[in-house]
Write a structure and sequence with these properties.
4-stranded antiparallel β-sheet; globular; single chain; binds flavin mononucleotide; 21% strand; NADH Oxidase; alpha+beta; 136 residues
Length: 136
């Protein structure tokens, strides 16, 4: 991770690293996702099997989000950032969504071979670091 979360050096992506290091780098982009009340209600778990995205129930308000709906949508946004960033760096991703009724584990992510991003996808990637909610 970097000191200023928006100042990620894209050029430091570990092309020569293993999947664990590549997924770890992609988390730099995940944490820039929008989230309900800026709660950032996600946790991640990295292992040699890949990356788990987990709902952080401690960051979910039982008053404003009693069913964790907005929090799960926010985690979906974080997962989307990982997918967009992986595509930009030329990697396809496998995202296996879990049954959220039974567990806080939302998705398991692996890199999955080569991917050719479109011009639109590259533009989405560059938007990740400058995107901010505009209430106007
Ligand atoms: C599921 C979800 C619901 C949101 N609901 C609102 C909302 O009702 N009103 C609002 O002004 N912003 C809403 N936001 C935007 C968040 O407040 C915003 O993403 C957060 O403060 C972080 O700021 P950023 O998007 O600039 O990174 C929502 C975001 C998400 C992901």
């Amino acid at each position: 991770m970097v000191d200023n979360v928006r100042e990620i050096k894209d050029g430091l992506f570990p092309f020569n690293g293993d999947e664990l290091h590549q997924l770890s780098f992609l988390l730099n982009y995940a944490i820039l996702a929008p989230s309900h009340y800026n709660a950032q209600p996600w946790r991640s778990r990295l292992s040699n099997n890949g990356l788990d995205i987990i709902l952080d129930k401690q960051r979910v308000s039982r008053f404003v989000d009693p069913h964790s709906r907005e929090a799960v949508i926010s985690c979906g946004a974080a997962i989307g950032m990982i997918e967009v960033a992986a595509h930009y760096f030329g990697f396809a991703v496998n995202i296996n969504y879990e049954n959220t009724a039974n567990s806080d584990l939302l998705a398991h992510i692996n890199l999955a071979g080569h991917y050719d991003p479109s011009a639109d996808e590259n533009a989405w990637f560059h938007a990740i670091k400058i995107r901010q909610t505009n209430r106007k």
